[in-house]
Every structure is written in C-alpha cells, then in structure tokens.
Amino acid sequence: MQKIVIAIDGYSGCGKSSTAKAVANKLGYTYIDSGAMYRAATLFFLNQGVDLTNKEELIRQIQNLQISFKKNPHTGKQETYLNGINVEEPIRSMEVSSFVSEVSKIKEVREELVSRQQLMGEQKGVVMDGRDIGTVVFPYAELKVFMTADLEIRAKRRQKELQDKGQKVTLEDIIRNLSERDEIDSNRKESPLYRASDAIEIDTSFLEFEEQVNQVVDLAKEKIGHYNKTI
Ligand code: DC
Fold this sequence. Notes:
The protein has one domain (5-221): P-loop containing nucleotide triphosphate hydrolases (Rossmann fold, 3-Layer(aba) Sandwich). Helices cover 51% and strands 16% of the residues. It has helices spanning 16-27, 34-48, 55-62, 94-103, 107-120, 133-137, 151-164, 171-187, 209-230; strands at residues 5-10, 30-33, 67-71, 78-82, 85-86, 126-130, 143-148, 200-203. The radius of gyration is 17 Å and the shape is globular. 37% of the residues are buried. 2'-deoxycytidine-5'-monophosphate binds at residues 12, 34-35, 38-39, 100-101, 104, 130-133, 181, 185.
C-alpha cells in the first residue's frame, strides 16, 4: 500500500500538533512538528544572541543549527533536539512563543527549514503540521486539512496544557500571544498562513479530541484508497 502526505495547517493553538501526532500513530506514519523546528531555531538564535537583522550572520549561524526528533523511550512521546540537546521544554516557553513569529517571518530561515521539511517528506508516509505545509512545503500533498477554533477556546486549552506542565500564565497573556501570532503569521510577506483552496477545513471549537482525530483519519483512509487505485 503506497503512503500519502498529510498536511495540517491552521491558527496557533487549534490542536494541530496533538491531532497530527495521533493521526500519525493510527496510520503508522511519521509525525513532523514543523512549528517545533521554528521554535528550536528561535531558541538557538536567542541563546547565541544572533542579531536577526544581520542577514549574513543569520545565514552563517543557521548552518550550525541542527534539529532532530527522537522518541522518549519512557513516555513514547516525540521530543525535539537542538544540536543534540533535548529542548522539548524550553521551546514551549512563553519567551520562545513570543519571539517565534518574528523569527519565522525571515525569508532565509524559512528557505532553510522548508527544504529540510521537504527532505523529511520525500518518502511520504508523513503527517506534518504547521502554517504553510499545504501551500508551500507540500503543495501536492494528497490530503490537506486546515484547522480553526474559537480564540478563547484555544487559549483555555493552551492554559490547561501549560498548567499541567506547572507553568502559570494568565488567560489574557495567552489570548494576546495567540492573536499576535495569528496576525503576524497571516500577514507576513513570506509564506503567510492561509487555507489552500484544496484544503478541508475542520473547526475544532466544539469537537472532542477523539472526534477531530477520527475525522482526519477517515479523510486520510479515503485518500489512501483513492491514491492506491489511481497509481
Ligand atoms: O505550531 P507552533 O505554534 O508550535 O508554531 C510556532 C510558530 O512557528 C508559529 O507562530 C509560526 C511559526 N511556524 C511557521 O511560520 N511555519 C510553520 N510551518 C510552522 C510554524
């Protein structure tokens, strides 16, 4: 059975990553969190004190940026590594969240990360989530999903996630961060976030997690069946 590429895009905090992860698990596909790559790049630039306006330095530094994903043998969860160090926690901090959209506006950063993402998807059998996956990274993905959800519902979900990790952040701060990121992500010059014309929109505001996962899995099975009939 030939495998397909599944692209999941949408606003911040719609549950794209957790949905994509569960879908990949159910299908036996590889999950790739492209947002984690932009977050790891942001952490790297912050740690190195890179001047983001100095393009030459940026291009030089980005060559020293190595990002990989590994499964934690204890939890079974995929974690992000930056130059060999596990950065799964720090890349989710509010500090990184408030810088990441600025970093991901930069053309040179996008070019580098997009080409790495395309390499990762070459063999198909991947579920990748982000902002430009169905439009730029994999414009020929067999299945494209665009996820949306009400801003306040997204913020409450994100607050709970952070609380579960012991981080206390007010709902106002989260709403501000999510709407700022939506605004920058949707209006930037380089690969802005928008729904590809052939993407299927899923509003997750009132869906249980299992429901949103099953919707994507059903769509994927349909596409896989169709794809295998036509090749
Ligand atoms: O999916 P996330 O919230 O972890 O992504 C963090 C940021 O990275 C998001 O605000 C915008 C950026 N991003 C992007 O520009 N393109 C992607 N494909 C994925 C994320």
